[in-house]
Amino acid sequence: EYKGVGRKEPYIYKGRKYKVEGFIKDNSPQAPSNYNDSSSFSRYFSLDAWFKKKLKELPAGVRKTFPYLICPKASKSEKNKGCEELYWEKDNSSFGHHQVDKQRWEWLGKEEQRIYKKTGKKISLRAKGNIHPTVKPLKLGSYLLTIGSQEGDIILDPFGGSGWMAIVAKALKRHYIVFETIKENVKIANSRLLAEKTLWD
């Protein structure tokens, strides 16, 4: 039995288990921590105490909107990088567009009026590039992954969207697992990932 002699953290280790009952003075959500501070990576952590301390270090504009983090949208160039060759036709699906292969077009003479070689029908293109409605800035993702993970960690994104988290994970040398059910989003995410390949591979 080891009772934490020589350590700051009070605990009993017995039978391959840690026992902390009776050592934590106040484990309520309002408690600053066992040590009345914002704690550390190695012991009982109080998020409230951490926020109270760190809030003072933020710029005045950020403190006004806390706890909400407001950041600029992804720039047009960042959003469309890798998606320059994606063209979309308007349809009645829930997504609103489907991809058109531009290699199978023929021009009809009018702006954005084409005939699709595959079906022979006329099409009117409604969008080009990354049409995902809520593309997040890569800088925001970099901030979140830096404070929440380390190199070599596995990042799980169950809602892949435009692929922003996968791109950031790749840049920061994290592994990633991404789920996405909308095929248009999958195409966008893959195109963006391929465009970033030469930067850090």
What does this protein structure show overall?
This protein is an alpha+beta fold. It has three domains: 12-59, no CATH class; 87-128, no CATH class; 138-200, no CATH class. The protein has seven helices and nine strands, in the order E-E-H-H-H-E-E-E-E-E-H-E-H-E-H-H. The strands form three sheets. It has a five-stranded antiparallel β-sheet with strand order 4-3-7-6-5, with no helix packed on it. Strands 1-2 form a two-stranded antiparallel sheet. A hairpin with a 6-residue loop joins strand 3 (87-90) and strand 4. Helix 4 (138-148) packs across helix 5. It is globular. The protein starts with 11 loop residues before the first strand and ends with a helix. The relative contact order is 0.10. One of its GO terms (molecular function) is DNA binding. It comes from marine sediment metagenome. This is DNA methylase N-4/N-6 domain-containing protein. Residues 22-190 form the DNA methylase N-4/N-6 domain. Keywords: Methyltransferase, Transferase.
